[in-house]
Amino acid sequence: MNFRKLSLLILIFSLLGFYSCSDDENSNLEGRWQLNQIETSDGKKQDVDTIFYSFDRKVFQYLKLTSDTETFMGFGNYTVSNGEIKVDLIWESFRPYECDSCLGWNSLSRNFIIKRNTSSSLQLESDGEILYFKKY
User: Fold this and answer.
1) Rounded distance, CA 28 to CA 33, Å?
2) Please, are residues 76 and 53 in contact by the beta-carbon 8 Å criterion?
């Protein structure tokens, strides 16, 4: 094999190696996450264990356990770009409708800045709050 072909092969494998090691924004995001703590802008922390976010191929699910036997759940879409997640929920997907305080968001759309995203923990910042999740 001549030097030119060998150099081309090395270049191709190097590029493939860099591509496979690139920081894919969705690589650790997909899955179900349990919200553990909310830190407000004034530094106060509130423990939480009844709220779950699920990210799966651009479909977002919000789930809140409202009692031992009841849940509040809804769906929407999400996009990830430049370290941010944009979630758009669909109100008609929520069950039951009568739980106005169950969502706890100001609107059906919310933007999050990804502060940390590993295979076991997720930190999102939005509206002056930092949300701490663990993989469920």
Assistant:
1) 11
2) no
- What predicted TM-score, i.e. pTM, was given to this entire model? 0.79
User: Pairing state of beta strands 109-117 and 121-126?
Assistant: antiparallel
9: which 2 tokens? 């092969």
Query: Using one digit for the tens of pLDDT, what is the confidence trace for 42-66?
Result: 999 999 999 999 999 999 999 999 8
pLDDT digits (tens, 9 = 90+) for 114-136: 999 999 999 999 999 999 999 98
| Long-range pairs, 82-90, Cβ under 8 A, ≥24 | 83/25, 83/113, 83/114, 84/111, 84/112, 84/113, 84/114, 85/29, 85/55, 85/111, 85/112, 85/114, 85/124, 86/110, 86/111, 86/112, 87/60, 87/111, 87/112, 89/60, 89/62
**Size (the chain), residues:** 136
Q: Report d(CA 57, CA 66) in Å as an integer.
A: 27
By the 8 A CB rule, do 25 and 58 touch? no
Q: 55: how many CB neighbours lie within 10 A of its CB?
A: 20
Beta-carbon neighbour count of residue 62 at 10 Å? Answer: 22
